[in-house]
Write a structure and sequence with these properties.
Layout lengths: L7 H10 L7 H15 L6 H19 L33
Length: 97
């Protein structure tokens, strides 16, 4: 996926910035994502598990910041409507007492 058409100085700059050494990074990332989706399909419960882990990470951060655990609760992940796009909808509810 490396482009030989990029001058050496541009490839070096991209390498130092942690970017792929290609002329069209969006095409590179699109191909990479398609390959990943093809070769590593997610199990059905993966996004639900990810949601639960994120919620717990937020709760842990609140607790470590000194927020009383009785003042919040972690609910179960819920499905959110999402347009057919390469994004994942995330619904976060937050309330204060």
């Amino acid at each position: 996926m490396r482009s030989a058409s990029l001058p050496l100085w541009q490839r070096a700059a991209k390498m130092m910035q942690g970017e792929p050494q290609v002329a069209d990074a969006s095409a590179f990332y699109k191909q990479l994502r398609e390959r990943l989706e093809r070769e590593r399909a997610l199990p059905p419960a993966a996004l639900t598990q990810l949601g639960a882990e994120r919620a717990q990470a937020i709760a842990d951060a609140l607790t470590q910041s000194g927020v009383d655990g009785a003042s919040y609760k972690v609910g179960a992940p819920e499905a959110a409507d999402s347009p057919a796009a390469p994004t994942v909808a995330l619904k976060l509810g937050l309330a204060a007492r």
